[in-house]
Amino acid sequence: MSWQRVFGHQRQQEMFANAVRRERLGHAYLFAGPQGVGKKLFALELAQTLLCEQSDSTQFEACGDCSGCRQVLSSTHPDLMQVSLPEGKTELPIDLFVGAADKRGREGLCHELSLSPMHGGHRIAIIDDAEKMNIASGNSLLKTLEEPGPGAVLILLAIDPDQVIQTIRSRCQSVFFGTLEPADITGILHQQGIAANEALIEQAVQRSGGSVGKAIRWLQQSEEQGNIDTDVLAKIFCRGRFRAEELARVGEAILGQYKSDPGSQREAAKSIVENCLSWLHQAITKSEVNVIQQDAWADAMEQCFEAILQIDRRATVTTVLDAFYHDLEINLRPTWN
Ligand SMILES: [Zn+2]
Q1: How many A from CA of 82 to the centre of ligand 1?
Q2: Domain ranges of the chain
């Protein structure tokens, strides 16, 4: 079942399959290419394939089920090490490679890589953000690159290989990863269960520039844009007076972002009503309203369902929303008198 989660990069897969088959696997690779195209996933899949206990060199496929595979998938395999830029840091510190000052040479990635494999034939290190290595970190890695331990495989990941220290870069085989095809990005979004409608996914793919990371970020942003802030909702449904005109204003601003895209506009309209619905639901369950109000608010929730139904039936969204704001106002007004 291996390699199914890697979309695209077929040429690179074949290259590694051949290298493994011919027992010509190198000991240091630099994976270079744009952000969010799957370099790290590829590196992890390669590591799993090499550490799988059921796989041999002719298959180049991990079983996904042996203890080696499971340990790779849960990031607990003793023969797989990973380092990346620590939170809040701008460089990969030397400690990651050779241990802290009082434990120099006895800890860190270089020490780990010098040991013999615990389980199989390989000991693998994935170094993310390789362009963030400073001179000291780079120097500490040189010896490992020149005299790797038994079965050691280093995989460095970088967006811009020219930013990787030259002495490191020249000791690695460069493997370039291009941008992804639209169909691959769509496939990844579906595989990851990214809950967006097809129109939104299509737009995200169009704006992704071949990077699934970018597509996901765009989807997250557009989702946020369709959402009304809780504070704003509290103001709109403020005790004492429902502010229909304020809801209309907020709604208009949201829909305005999708003028040229009716599909997304419909989704945004639905999201506006859903926001109101969940706010009303919360207010009722928190018993923030008295009994008379509760009836009116329950009716208001019915109006939300009705509006969602209308939107789903492809009625004109602005007409549905205008009627929705108006109905809410009529319904909620008497409860405060
Ligand atoms: Zn396996």
Answers
A1: 19
A2: 10-178, 226-336
Q: How many angstroms separate the alpha carbon of residue 99 from the centre of ligand 1?
A: 31
The pLDDT value given to residue 291? 72
User: Cα(20) to centroid of ligand 1, in Å?
Assistant: 16
Does residue 41 surpass a pLDDT of 90? yes
**56 CB burial (10 A radius; 0-12, 13-18, 19+):** exposed
Average confidence (pLDDT) over 220-231? 69
What's the predicted TM-score (pTM) here?
0.67
Ligand 1: distance of its center to the CA of 69 in Å?
A: 4
Residue 1 has pLDDT above 60, yes or no: no
Measure 128 CA to ligand 1 centroid, in angstroms. 24
At 275 the pLDDT is 83
For 127-166, what is each residue's pLDDT tens digit?
999 999 999 999 999 999 999 888 999 999 999 999 999 9
The answer to whether 199 and 206 are in contact (CB under 8 A) is no
Cα gap 242→328, rounded to integer Å: 8
Structure tokens that stand for 42 in this block = 């590829």
Q: How far is the CA of 52 from the centre of ligand 1 (A)?
A: 4
Distance 70 CA to ligand 1 centre (A): 7
Asked if residue 117 lies in contact with residue 150, where contact means CB atoms within 8 angstroms, the answer is yes
Q: How far apart are CA 97 and CA 243, in angstroms?
A: 60
Q: Judge contact between 38 and 177, C-beta under 8 A.
A: yes
Report the pLDDT value the prediction gives residue 337, as an integer from 0 to 100: 44
Given the candidates 2.40.40.20, 3.30.1340.30, 3.40.50.300, 3.40.800.20, the CATH classification of the domain at 10-178 is 3.40.50.300
pLDDT digits (tens, 9 = 90+) for 90-110: 999 999 999 998 988 889 999
Q: How far is CA 220 from CA 84, 202, 216, 227, 324, in A?
A: 24, 14, 6, 11, 27
